């Protein structure tokens, strides 16, 4: 029996799932060289709200600098995209094989991708408070299907939707400000960070949520 519960890191919500440390879901399968990375095949974006949070502490600024200097990172006008490894050769070979049809997933590149921040067997190396919110709330459908109370999971989903709307509002407001000033992350990175440092950071009041029990069960295997 596992569980899903809400953890707050300095007010930043994370849905913790105890099943993840022993991931057996389809999305957790890795067919590339990096094993035991759960579903961290995602290449995360860091939006203006995330960068705003990082601009407030020395730790956050160091992290932002590290993310920016990663070889796969691309800086766009209003967000940063940290791209990890993608085993393109392995993917092409796999797609030509009969095995490909055994995996029921539209986007099979996930089996060959690895986020730059995951440590095999250990999980994410970024502090919860600086991760993109999707990283903090994502739980695969195979685990959700085993929730003892699906209505309760809907409460999690609703709380998450409100939080996502609030983050979007924050991102849109910051983007509007940068547009007014005629600056972008791509062209004026340092200037944007200095500006964000001086803008007060609003805190979202995430509601408390009860634990959800997860029935034991196995999927395709990771
Ligand atoms: S959310 Fe699902 S796929 Fe991702 S690590 Fe947890 S159990 Fe594995
Ligand atoms: S940032 Fe962290 S949680 Fe998100 S995909 Fe990468 S390793 Fe996983």
The number of helical elements comes to 7
* Span between termini: 19 Å
Average pLDDT works out at 95
Q: Provide the β-strand percentage band.
A: 15-25%
Q: List the bound ligands.
A: iron/sulfur cluster
Which stretches are poorly predicted, pLDDT < 50 over at least 5 residues? none
Biggest sheet: strand arrangement: 2-1-10
State the secondary-structure class: alpha+beta
Largest sheet: 3 strands, antiparallel
List the helices and strands and how they pair.
Elements: E1 2-9, E2 12-17, E3 45-47, H1 48-54, H2 58-69, E4 73-75, E5 79-82, E6 85-86, H3 88-95, E7 113-114, E8 118-119, E9 123-124, H4 133-137, H5 141-144, H6 150-181, H7 185-197, E10 212-214
Antiparallel strand pairs: 1-2, 1-10, 3-5, 4-5, 6-7, 8-9
Give a written overview of the molecule.
The protein has helices at 48-54, 58-69, 88-95, 133-137, 141-144, 150-181, 185-197; strands at residues 2-9, 12-17, 45-47, 73-75, 79-82, 85-86, 113-114, 118-119, 123-124, 212-214. 36% of the residues lie in helices and 16% in strands. It has 222 residues and is of the alpha+beta class. It has a domain at 27-138 and 166-204. The model has no long low-confidence stretch (mean pLDDT 95). It has 7 helices and 10 strands. The protein binds iron/sulfur cluster (SF4) (2 copies).
